[in-house]
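Below is a complete specimen:
___
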Amino acid sequence: MSSHAPQAVGIIPENTPIRVVPATALPHLDGALSYRCDTPLHIGQLVATPLGKRQVVGLVIGLADASAGMTLKTVSLFHADYRLTPDMQQFLDWVAKWYLEKPGLVLKMASSVPSALKDDALSIGYHVIASPDQAKTERRQNILAELAGKLPETLSAIRAMTGATASTIKAMCDDGLLAAVPIRPDHSANQPDHMTIQDRLKSLTDEQSDAAKTLAKAVTAKQYSAFLLDGVTGSGKTEVYFEAVAAALKAGRQALILLPEIALSQAFERRCYERFGFRPRLWHSGLTDSRRRAVWRDAIRGVPMIVAGARSALFLPFKNPGVIVVDEEHELSFRQQDGVRYHARDMAVLRAHLSHIPIILSSATPSLESLVNAEQGKYHHIRLMSRYGAAGMPDMALIDLSKTPAERRRWLSPPLVDAISKALEQKEQALLFLNRRGYAPMSLCLSCRERIVCPNCSTWLVTHKSAGELRCHHCGHNSQFPSICPSCKTEGMIMPCGPGVERLAEEVSIRFPEARQGIFSSDVITTPALAEQFFNAVHNDEIDIIIGTQMVAKGHHFPDLTLVGVVDADLGLGGADLRGGELSWQLLTQVAGRAGRAERPGKVLLQTAMPESMVLQSLIHDDRDGFIAAEKAARKDAAMPPYGRLAAVILSGRDEARLMLIARQMVDHWPNFDGVTLLGPAPAPLRLLRRNYRVRFLLKSERDVNLQRVITSWLAAIAIPSAVSCQVDIDPVSFF
């Protein structure tokens, strides 16, 4: 966490002056203060650190130069095991320096479960002692199936996973289905026996087997290497990288798999159980404190395990990592957009490098950054060109809305309606994709033509008809749907405009009244448990038509789904977003990949008013290489990432005039660095956010320029008042 590598010091004797980084924001360059230890400890030790009137977690980074007679506060040890490895210390230091963040805030992400550092009393856990078919009700059968393969879980953890009440669990114990045993809350649930891990190469195709052997060999070599596992949708990428995970477990090491959505976690749990006979340890914000505590403790103690988690899992203090996998590496959800702004994919590569282990970046639609890294030899490029088994790639076609438009105030064109009807007749499932939450993206007064906007943000309010509300998807503001226009006070003239998934569901109900439908969006699917219920309903043929946002495009396997209809394929194609075309191509390719993943052939229909778009033409002609070549050429000509570098500096505050005054002062202090262009200041595209006005600078440079040093030098010469927030965004992926 210091600006230097961890000091090569053995045991630090008691009463020695030490430097400690408290897990909080401090203005010092290395975020550290001087303390004294009351017991012998090591560099990297996590300690209870007095800071004012409170105690915070701290990291010992080295010895302090204490002058004679100087009085230092004393830190105390949590546990001898709770020590970060030198490579983990370097990793935290690198993250802080790369993203120009306070070291203490980065440490806070690695010590995100403060209760894990404290001792616990024994509690009661419950584990399965009967098979699901011995239960008399479907509810109990589901509970037993969910807990199968797990070590004892606490009542609160079981309730979070299954919704079961305490009385249900007690009754199942009385009936001999579950047993209650004393446990420690940090028990090593699902700890694999590395002697029993078997490989599955015989069940893989030759193409998959060759790839799996390459990855497993890299894990066994115990040295850094980076792989881009690039396979078409349905090609079995997960089964391939599972063999690398198996190699890590056989060696008694830890495996980390980063997932783009927590909604995927329970489905992923099931796949791990089918492959390994035990479930992975999950890590995301929706877990109980006791489950997060258990994972954190076993990570720092080096317990062999698989952790599958959201981007924050990258900061778990693994003592003995063996491999890192980033699944769907192209997903922008790996980029943290508030707090410490980091990209989990990029930092996962750094962490693997510092820990001398392989990393696998897996995707059917790799990011341009990863493809260029593979092209330049930084990554090994592994291609999987065929779908597994009898499945073939779906047929794709465009529906030109200028020739076959939908009816007025309807959103499904005649060709798509016909295709849905045929799928339903053949007892097949259909997916309608529209990347818009809610009922309508905006509401308009027909009298004065004013749009209803958020009072806190410069954005339209989204109509959510099912809740009877208007909502802001940026700040969370909500209000009842108005009967009177806020601008002209006319009554009854507010009209929702455009479709969201709720409005699409309304049309489906009218057109196909007998069809069973389900909406898959973040407004409806709010927990992994609800996602699991939805997936089960689809797999059990209880849903005929799925209506979903981008959440439905991420790695789901629906064997009976043969038709995908993209309701608005033009979303994202307009605008000035650097990655707009790439993101649209990735999203549409991924959602198209949900069709025809089993024996039945798949079909994808894309409704568009822009049929000549390069993105859409590349999709229907299966010209991935042509699209990527054109994207690379455009970026290269403009010296944009991955061929150049970007950084944003955003000022925000309540007084817009004051912001612009400070911004002009910043321009006056700009020292004209060679190879760096300063763009701005300008009002941000989202000019008002959470009642704060926003002004942006964009710095553009060549690849080899140290933008962090440029920004640090520039900002050091400017006095920014406390009422103004200055945020630096290194390598931004969004420009709102």
In short: The domain at 201-384 is CATH 3.40.50.300 (Rossmann fold).
